[in-house]
């Protein structure tokens, strides 16, 4: 027989579009619609129900950006529809192709009961199944006019809260009652699944022609003048091909219902609360209808919002959780970025997420679920294990620009050697529709073919698109055991992981960070948000330390509630589109205000604790929250300031400053720094070893401005070609601003475009470091500002601080993997060195760095370290980073890793001065410089126990002794959630513990719980 597949497929497309799909709703009846436009921010149902409504009709314009309209929909089921299945169809003005990025609605019954969400792919509301005829119909629909913000690169001002009063965005579509013809709907699902499968089969596959003929027979059996009446006969023609079982070797897919909801992105936090409500209302409605459906929801914060804002819906969710069908996953407070948060922040993400699930639902989540974060820190496997989790899931690595990640199921090994079983779904999306094309791609793409057979597919519309739909569930059922298709089973993530782990007990190992070769600009975008996070993290450390020390001494109450609330606020803002700087203006403006409030409250907690500890008196008391001693101050303690402090010149050689033809030369007997007339450091000599740090013919403190127009995704991206063009910014003013025996300071001013940069280069007496303070008034567009330091060391790798340790990265570009890592993340420091000598660059709030090789005037290889200060992306916030910024960097010649670790903490935890009358002994102390105390706090269970978290920071094994100022009855190792685990470490001090012996492996984290 001749090949007529093209004709049959065209016939199918036309009949589906023009006759069969429209017949899913065979009869309609008008509904009466009234509207109330809520002024300002969203209001609760009770207020909306009592409002005065005006008549409305299809075609009416509504919805200024970020506004809310409430629609009252009333009517009556026609009497002659008795016995039929009836739905209300509500079109708020949807664009069917953009679910999650436009208007959305939440429908209530008139008595306030939540019905379900309304979205472009789920615009129906249940009315009767079956109808009696004549029953009243009534709904109140809260409709959000979220603007359609251009993706992925269009400039838009709609992301600013100030646009709320603009012109309406939407036109109301049809709102009517309709008879739902279930058999026609089922026929549509049959035809769609088979036609999609047919398109994925080889042209030479006999199965393809069998499906084609079955579809043809089904269309022949469809009476186009009575589609509902003939739907059953049409389906019978498809039964044979739909019931043929899959091959025994077919790939196995665990289909997990999901709705990836960004906690903020192209909408503010307050809108996310409503997106979660609309989506979970949809999901709980589906769960009530489909016993085999499972839905996984990450981000404890989002469920906490439902508990606070939608208790009715939360109760419904909780019932399904108890039945094991609505499945909390992830174990983190939000789907956090994992590059930028500090170590204790990542630990607390897991602590607060897992504790919420345990306290609310009695669930111990076993997986960390981060499909969309922008690369994954090598510290994460250890933290996952210490939180009591077993598995990790991500999707984002499929976005790599240069190198294809080689595995989909593997063991991921962290910086300390911990391993976690990891899956990277080969379907390459976390918003699957369960289309045949996606299922076939998952099977073809699976890297472990021949060794494993299982992969996971998250399905559902995300970001407020409504999550899974009834159509997706229908596809899952039809592909559960279908010849030519992977076998699809709806199940939970834990069920998938257990099956995958059982069949693949010895997977390949990937060691080190999971670097995303994409979205590298997120290390730099929105500098104020990043500074707010960094400052908040260190203030939380100080607040816990000093409040805990004061509480143990009986001098003050520990602020459990305040610290819990503040931690959750900071953790919320570490979501992977807030802290990375890839949200709209509204989000970042609000974040700046929130960080200001957080920091002010934490400063109050710290100040109160310090005053309690210092006691009455008139003597200055100096407090050191850093984990290393400095300038006579104990780590984690306080000392009285000397009564009469000798002048610097009496203890250290005074700093001198000499201006000459080559510029200004600063000298403190440790370093000699020459600042040229262009503001560049032409020479930096380490006088301790007689070594020039600046390569011959090059200069440091080089300020460079590059065009920054990524190929797409402005705030997210830095593309390598930005380096093709650079403007070096000379100084307009270089002068000696201050010169005392204690410190000399050079002021350097640069002006460019509409911007100004003022630097102060400071050299203090006796200090082997150059401090560089940089203030920028930034008014550029699509530019990136870099600060560069070439150093005369031949380094084959750089070392960058990450959470609880550091990672080494090549400085060369031998492979495509090396070349793709051209912008990297470092926390408080980055170090380059050769045997016997190194240089560290410290910072107080910058993360993006670049390390490369350069040649000096004599052609010798040296190392270039550049830090990214500011960007000026257009999308999604066209005002990104405009305005004033301050940065502090420290150039530390002659530094080893230990120096970088110590001074990085010192920079970020400055000494505090309080007037009082007593020194404060550290609550805990460690006798090993490489064992760093990261947190000292009282236990979250309010028992009064002290919790100490520490880690090995230098990358080698360490034996250390922890000394406790107040003896305790027991000292136990604990997990991140402060539950005792394993054997008690050796302790000393008689009947009470005052000393604990510890042995740590490289980068190992230990949590010690001290109980009275």
From TrEMBL:
SMART domains reported in the protein's UniProt record: Alpha-mann_mid
Pfam families from the UniProt entry: Alpha-mann_mid, Ams1-like_1st, Glyco_hydro38C2, Glyco_hydro_38C, Glyco_hydro_38N
GO biological process, one term: oligosaccharide catabolic process
Single GO term (MF): metal ion binding
Alphabetical keyword list: Glycosidase, Hydrolase, Metal-binding
SUPFAM superfamilies: Families 57/38 glycoside transferase middle domain (SSF88688), Galactose mutarotase-like (SSF74650), Glycoside hydrolase/deacetylase (SSF88713)
Keyword check for Metal-binding: yes
Keyword Hydrolase belongs to the record: yes
The Glycoside hydrolase family 38 central domain, residue ranges: 517-595
Recorded coiled-coil stretches: none
InterPro entries: Ams1-like_N (IPR054723), Gal_mutarotase_sf_dom (IPR011013), GH38_C (IPR041147), Glyco_hydro/deAcase_b/a-brl (IPR011330), Glyco_hydro_38_C (IPR011682), Glyco_hydro_38_cen (IPR015341), Glyco_hydro_38_cen_sf (IPR037094), Glyco_hydro_38_N (IPR000602)
Family recorded in the similarity comment: Belongs to the glycosyl hydrolase 38 family.
Protein's name in the database: Alpha-mannosidase
Species for this entry: Catellatospora coxensis
């Amino acid at each position: 027989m001749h090949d007529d597949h093209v004709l049959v497929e065209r016939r199918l497309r036309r009949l589906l579009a023009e006759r069969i799909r429209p017949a899913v709703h065979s009869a309609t009846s008008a509904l009466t619609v009234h509207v109330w436009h809520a002024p300002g921010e969203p209001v609760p149902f009770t207020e909306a129900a009592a409002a005065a409504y005006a008549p409305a009709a299809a075609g009416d314009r509504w919805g200024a950006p970020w506004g809310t309209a409430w629609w009252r929909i009333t009517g009556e089921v026609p009497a002659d529809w008795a016995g039929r299945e009836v739905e209300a169809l509500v079109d708020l003005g949807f664009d069917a192709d953009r679910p999650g990025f436009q208007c959305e609605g939440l429908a209530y019954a008139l008595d306030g009961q939540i019905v379900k969400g309304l979205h472009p792919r789920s615009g129906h509301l249940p009315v009767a199944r079956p109808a009696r005829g004549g029953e009243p119909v009534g709904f109140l629909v809260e409709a959000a006019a979220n603007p359609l913000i251009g993706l992925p690169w269009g400039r838009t001002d709609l992301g600013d809260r100030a646009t709320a009063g603009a012109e309406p965005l939407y036109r109301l579509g049809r709102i009517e009652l309709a008879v739902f013809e279930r058999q026609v709907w089922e026929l549509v699902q049959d035809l769609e699944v088979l036609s999609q499968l047919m398109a994925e089969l080889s042209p030479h596959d006999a199965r393809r022609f069998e499906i084609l003929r079955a579809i043809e027979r089904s269309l022949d059996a469809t009476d186009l003048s009575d589609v509902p009446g003939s739907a059953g006969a049409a389906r019978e023609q498809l039964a044979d091909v739909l019931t043929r079982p899959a091959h025994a070797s077919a790939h196995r897919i665990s289909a997990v219902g999901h709705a990836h909801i960004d906690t903020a992105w192209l909408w503010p936090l307050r809108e996310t609360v409503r997106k979660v409500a609309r989506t979970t209302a949809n999901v709980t409605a589906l769960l009530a209808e489909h016993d085999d459906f499972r839905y996984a929801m990450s981000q404890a914060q989002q469920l906490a919002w439902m508990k606070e804002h939608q208790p009715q819906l939360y109760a419904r969710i909780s019932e399904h959780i108890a039945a094991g069908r609505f499945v909390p996953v992830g174990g983190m407070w939000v789907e956090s970025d994992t590059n930028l948060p500090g170590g204790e922040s990542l630990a607390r993400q897991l602590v607060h997420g897992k504790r919420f699930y345990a306290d609310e639902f009695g669930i111990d989540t076993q997986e960390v679920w981060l499909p969309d974060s922008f690369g994954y820190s090598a510290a994460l496997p250890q933290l996952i294990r210490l939180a009591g989790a077993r598995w990790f899931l991500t999707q984002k690595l499929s976005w790599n620009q240069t190198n294809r990640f080689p595995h989909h199921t593997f063991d991921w090994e962290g910086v300390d050697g911990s391993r976690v079983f990891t899956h990277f779904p080969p379907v390459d999306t976390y918003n699957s529709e369960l289309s045949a094309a996606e299922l076939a791609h998952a099977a073809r793409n699976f890297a472990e073919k021949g060794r494993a057979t299982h992969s996971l597919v998250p399905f559902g519309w995300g970001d407020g698109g409504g999550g899974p739909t009834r159509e997706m569930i229908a596809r899952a059922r039809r592909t559960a055991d279908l010849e030519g298709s992977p076998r699809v089973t709806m199940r939970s993530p834990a069920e998938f992981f257990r099956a995958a782990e059982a069949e693949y007990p010895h997977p390949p190992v990937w060691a080190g960070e999971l670097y995303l070769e994409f979205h590298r600009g997120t290390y730099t975008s929105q500098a104020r948000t990043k500074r707010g996070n960094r400052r908040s993290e260190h203030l939380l450390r100080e607040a816990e330390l000093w409040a805990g020390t004061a509480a143990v001494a009986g001098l003050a109450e520990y602020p459990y509630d305040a610290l819990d609330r503040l931690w959750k606020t900071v953790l919320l803002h570490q979501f992977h589109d807030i802290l990375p700087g890839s949200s709209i203006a509204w989000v970042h403006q609000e974040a700046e205000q929130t960080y200001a409030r957080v920091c002010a409250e934490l400063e109050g907690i710290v100040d109160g604790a310090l005053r309690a500890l210092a006691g009455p008196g008139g003597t200055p008391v100096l407090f050191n929250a850093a984990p290393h001693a400095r300038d006579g101050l104990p780590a984690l303690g306080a000392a009285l300031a000397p009564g009469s402090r000798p002048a610097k010149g009496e203890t250290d050689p005074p700093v001198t400053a000499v201006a000459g033809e080559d510029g200004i030369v600063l000298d403190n007997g440790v370093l000699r720094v020459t600042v040229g007339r262009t503001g560049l450091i032409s020479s930096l000599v380490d006088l301790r070893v007689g070594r020039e740090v600046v390569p011959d013919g090059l200069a440091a403190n080089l300020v460079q401005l590059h065009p920054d127009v990524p190929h797409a995704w402005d705030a997210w991206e830095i593309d390598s070609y930005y380096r093709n063009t650079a403007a070096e910014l000379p100084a307009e003013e270089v002068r000696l601003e201050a010169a005392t025996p204690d410190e000399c300071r050079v002021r350097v001013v640069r002006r460019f475009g509409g911007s100004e940069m003022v630097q102060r280069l400071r050299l203090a007496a006796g200090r082997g470091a150059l401090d560089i303070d940089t203030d920028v008034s930034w008014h550029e567009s699509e530019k990136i500002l870099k600060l560069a330091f070439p150093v005369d060391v031949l380094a084959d790798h750089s070392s960058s601080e990450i959470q609880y340790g550091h990672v080494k990265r090549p400085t060369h570009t031998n492979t495509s993997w090396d070349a793709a890592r051209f912008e990297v993340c470092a926390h408080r420091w980055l170090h380059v060195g050769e045997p016997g000598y190194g240089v560290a660059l410290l910072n107080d709030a910058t993360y993006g760095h670049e390390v490369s090789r350069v040649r000096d005037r004599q052609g010798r290889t040296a190392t270039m370290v550049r830090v990214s200060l500011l960007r000026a992306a257009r999308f999604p916030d066209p005002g990104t980073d405009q305005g004033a910024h301050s940065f502090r960097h420290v150039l530390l010649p002659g530094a080893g890793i230990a120096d970088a670790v110590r001074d990085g903490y010192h920079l970020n935890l400055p000494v505090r001065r309080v007037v009082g009358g007593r020194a404060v002994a550290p609550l805990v102390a460690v006798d090993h410089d490489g064992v760093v105390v990261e947190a000292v706090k009282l236990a979250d269970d309010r028992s009064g126990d002290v919790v100490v978290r520490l880690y090995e920071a230098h990358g080698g094994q360490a034996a250390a002794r922890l000394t406790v100022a107040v003896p305790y009855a027991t000292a136990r190792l604990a997990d991140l959630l402060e539950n005792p685990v394993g054997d008690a470490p050796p302790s000393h001090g008689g009947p009470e513990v005052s000393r604990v012996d510890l042995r740590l492996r490289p980068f190992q984290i230990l949590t010690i719980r001290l109980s009275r």
